[in-house]
Write a structure and sequence with these properties.
The protein has 2 domains: 5-289, NAD(P)-binding Rossmann-like Domain (Rossmann fold); 293-498, Orthogonal Bundle (N-(1-d-carboxylethyl)-l-norvaline Dehydrogenase, domain 2). It is built from 22 helices and 15 strands. It is of the alpha/beta class. The protein is globular. The chain binds D-mannonic acid (CS2). D-mannonic acid binds at residues 195, 234-236, 304, 307, 378, 385. Residues 291-479 form the Mannitol dehydrogenase C-terminal domain. This is Mannitol dehydrogenase family protein.
Length: 499
């Protein structure tokens, strides 16, 4: 490729000669959505759907303003700002080919730590009808031990004392909604796009807890004017590697400081509950349904939990990527068993979904060797993921006296993983807000395995469930004595005999 072109609005016509670019006039697009959390997932998912939609020239109201909320987000903010909100989406197809396109739906970018007022004004703007969120599973400030909003979080305390310059999403949403109310601006929709069962319910519950303390008189206005649709979101989006960046430059001649890579599959199932109107995302493949709960449950407990199973077992065995893990025949057999024996009985009937082919397709997606989804990414923030992805299956199985063996082995493997080394003695990179506690409890577990289950913010009251505690303790001891692979094989064999 002769010349290298920098990705930005000015160069878009030139870039369009190389890869597909937005053909709509971005200058005509008004912001109708404020999105908080402009990481890879948002850019592979909602922003992608919205970009597709904006290619219908009659639609000009649904541009996205991307908000970077945390100091940590400086880099993505600066990158997108410099590139006029543009970035390349690189879809890694199953046959290894790459489908690339420039996405143009993020028409504005704001950096909250630099200018909180601007973010508040944007969220309060009458043009803005929807505020969408990808703030991660841990971002909802939910405490599993108390089953309520965590007011002990120092950032929340900060927001309560500095309402005009907040730091957390709760401070922002509260002030923005307050402005809307005071100015007579209509309500809006707050739509979570995170992997949480009942993500809309969770957002509403957590926000209202905060509001009741910060601005109690706003509560009834929110109840009447703001909707919180639940949704199920799906597209595997690994972290972008330096090779992805340099390949784009070498092969297509495009200099993009932060392209996004993802799988071809995508799904978005949304409850049709928007208090101020919404884009016709159904025309570009999203599904609007009355009740999204069964879909969420299916996705979280099969796909996300599947990831966790492959990630934790794979990490202990020394693998780096999810495809390596699932290509170990014993691990993939284990995952199939886990899904069939322990998860499927908890799901009930899902109208219009063929569960067998869904599970089959997951194995294929996990096995995509071009995605190279990092086990480090999957295992990161496990303390927020286990309670959502894996533990609901444990609770359901406990209730009906069902099998717990597979889930218990994974949880025991996580306790051993939290010691910080794989089975070959190689250090593991553990990225977790609760890293210190996890490690401390993991060390205690060497003497007394059930100590790990005492982390109440993760396990709630599970430590009192003898059936589970026994299964966990047995699994823990077996892994210590025989190594993870032998335990996986043993359970697979047992399950085979029972079939
Ligand atoms: C992953 C998800 O973070 C995780 O543990 O399971 O990021 C997953 O890739 C997405 O939810 C796919 O939709």
């Amino acid at each position: 490729m002769a010349n290298i072109i920098k990705l930005n609005q000015e160069n878009l016509t030139e870039i369009a000669k190389r890869i597909p670019c937005p053909t709509y006039n971005r200058n005509n697009i008004k912001t109708g959505i404020v999105h908080v959390g402009i990481g890879g997932f948002h850019r592979a998912h909602e922003a992608f759907y919205t970009d597709q939609l904006l290619h219908d020239e009659s639609i000009t109201d649904w541009g996205i303003c991307g908000v970077a909320l945390l100091d940590f987000d400086t880099k993505i903010y600066k990158t997108l700002k410099k590139q006029d909100g543009l970035y390349t989406l690189i879809i890694k197809e199953l046959d290894g080919s790459l489908t690339k396109r420039v996405i143009g739906s993020i028409v504005e970018c704001l950096f909250a730590p630099e200018n909180p007022t601007m973010v508040l004004e944007k969220m309060a703007s009458p043009d803005v009808k929807i505020i969408t969120l990808t703030i991660t599973e841990g971002g909802y400030n939910y405490n599993e031990a108390t089953r309520s909003f965590d007011f002990t979080n120092p950032q929340i305390q900060y927001d309560l004392n500095h309402p005009k310059t907040p730091k957390t999403i709760f401070g922002y949403l509260t002030q923005a909604l307050k402005l809307r109310k005071e100015r007579g601006v209509k309500g809006c929709t707050i739509q979570s796009c995170d992997n949480i069962q009942g993500n809309g319910h969770m957002t509403k519950k957590m926000l209202l807890s905060y509001v009741q303390k910060a601005e109690p008189e706003l509560t009834s206005w929110i109840e009447l004017n703001v909707s919180f649709p639940n949704s199920m979101v799906d597209r595997i989006t690994p972290a972008t590697s330096t090779t992805d960046i340099s390949n784009l430059k070498e092969i297509s001649g495009i200099e993009d400081a932060w392209p996004v890579v993802c799988e071809p599959f995508k799904q978005w199932v949304i409850e049709d509950n928007f208090s101020a109107g919404r884009p016709a995302w159904q025309t570009v493949g999203a599904q609007f349904v009355q009740d999204v709960v069964p879909y969420e449950k299916m996705k979280l407990s099969l796909l996300n939990a599947g990831h966790t199973v492959l990630g934790i077992l794979g990490a202990l065995m020394g693998y780096d990527t999810i495809d390596q893990s699932v290509h170990n025949p014993q691990i993939s057999e284990f995952l199939k068993n886990y899904m069939d024996v322990e998860v499927t009985p908890t799901l009930g009937h899902l109208e219009g979904v063929d569960l067998d082919s869904y599970k089959q397709s997951l194995l294929q997606r996990f096995g995509n060797i071009y995605i190279k989804d990092q086990i480090d990414r999957i295992c990161s923030e496990s303390s927020a993921k286990f309670p959502i992805f894996v533990l609901p299956t444990v609770y359901s199985q406990l209730k009906k006296n069902g099998s717990l063996a597979f889930a218990s082995l994974v949880i025991a493997a996580w306790a051993i993983y939290s010691l910080g080394k794989d089975e070959h003695g190689k250090p593991l990179t553990i990225k977790d807000a609760m890293e210190t506690t996890l490690n401390k409890k993991a060390i205690e577990s060497k003497e007394n395995p059930r100590a790990f289950l005492e982390i109440e913010t993760i396990f709630g009251k599970l430590k009192d469930e003898e059936t589970f505690v026994n299964a966990f303790t047995n699994a823990y001891k077996k892994i210590e004595n025989n190594g993870i692979e032998k335990c996986v094989i043993e359970l697979n064999n047992k399950s085979f005999k029972n079939k």
